[in-house]
Each structure stands twice: as structure tokens, then as C-alpha cells.
Write a structure and sequence with these properties.
This protein is mostly beta strands. 0% of the residues lie in helices and 62% in strands.
């Protein structure tokens, strides 16, 4: 079973980035080809919806997942995620480890902004060229998710790699995290 640990949305101009933090509650099974359907709304009025890239979660793994909703999700205040598991597997594939990321937005003031989160991902199992989707989730000091973003890339090879992810936030974040999954 997948648990939703938190949701939020970041906006800037005509773009909205819905964010969900998922946790695979299974102790021995991986969740493969998970797609999250995000439905956005503003003050209870439905707006647009969008699906995430497919991701994989190892047993016990926590992963932020985002999507890009341009135009159709104009200034949402709420997001409702519905994760759908493609299959449960007993032998999960390779995983990546993320962690704290550094947020930067030169010239940004307060409020809605676009910026970048940079940090390092590590793995001991991925070969060069493996498709990876990298996610960033950003939180306010009180723990609310205030934005995020994603980036798809081929793994460059080696045990770790520095990455940058473009993000949209509703206010300057107190902290951002990076996470990643194989598959896209």
C-alpha cells in the first residue's frame, strides 16, 4: 500500500507544480510503474489535472512526486493526488538516494518564484544511461509543502551525481529535498 504523507503546490505565472510525498508501506514488495494523477482546485472549484511520470518505489521508500500543469491549473490552492501502482514486485530494481538540496533564486523576493534546487544523488547499482526522474520538494518552516519540480535525465554513471532541478515555490522555502526514481 502507498501512503500519502503530504501534498502541496507551487505556482508561478501560468504554471503549477503539484507535489505529493509517497511512502511504500510494504516491507517486502516494490511498487513498479506508479503514476500519480493530480487533480487541482482553487477554493473548492476544480481546475485542471495532470499525471506524473511513472516511478518505482522500493519497500519502505519515501519519494516526492511532482508533475507540470501549465495553463489548465491556473493558481490552484489545493491538490488531490491519486497514486496508481502498475504492479507489485518481489525484486525491486535499483534505487537512488537523495537528501537535502540547496535552494537558490538570485534576484527573487518573497512570494511566488522560480528557482533551482541543487544537491547530490547516489546509487551503487545504476549503469550509465539508465533513465532517471529527479524530484525536488520544498517546504516552509512549519513543514507545509510550498513547491517543487522535476527533471528527467540519463544517469551519467558512477556512484553519485550532482543535479539541479528547476522549482516553482509560493514562498521562499526553509528547506528542500531531492529524491529520484528510475523510469520515465
Amino acid at each position: 500500500m502507498l501512503a500519502v504523507l503530504g501534498t502541496g503546490v507551487g505556482t508561478f505565472d501560468l504554471v503549477a507544480i503539484p507535489v505529493v510525498i509517497l511512502r511504500n508501506q510494504a516491507a517486502r514488495h516494490g511498487a513498479a510503474a506508479v503514476i500519480v494523477h493530480f487533480a487541482t482546485s482553487r477554493d473548492g472549484t476544480p481546475l485542471g489535472s495532470v499525471d506524473s511520470a511513472p516511478v518505482n518505489l522500493a519497500p519502505g521508500e519515501t519519494l516526492a512526486v511532482t508533475a507540470d500543469c501549465t495553463d489548465a491549473c491556473l493558481n490552484p490552492t489545493d491538490v488531490s493526488p491519486t497514486p496508481a501502482v502498475g504492479s507489485w514486485v518481489t525484486t525491486p530494481g535499483p534505487s537512488l538516494t537523495g537528501g537535502a538540496g540547496s535552494y537558490s533564486c538570485p534576484g527573487c523576493g518573497g512570494g511566488h518564484a522560480h528557482g533551482d534546487v541543487s544537491g547530490t544523488l547516489s546509487t551503487g547499482q545504476l549503469g550509465a544511461g539508465t533513465p532517471v526522474v529527479v524530484f525536488a520538494d520544498c517546504k516552509a518552516g512549519d513543514g507545509r509543502i510550498v513547491g517543487g519540480g522535476s527533471r528527467q535525465l540519463p544517469w551519467p554513471g558512477g556512484p553519485s551525481s550532482s543535479v539541479d532541478v528547476a522549482v516553482l515555490v509560493n514562498e521562499p522555502p526553509a528547506a528542500c529535498e531531492l529524491s529520484a526514481s528510475t523510469g520515465w
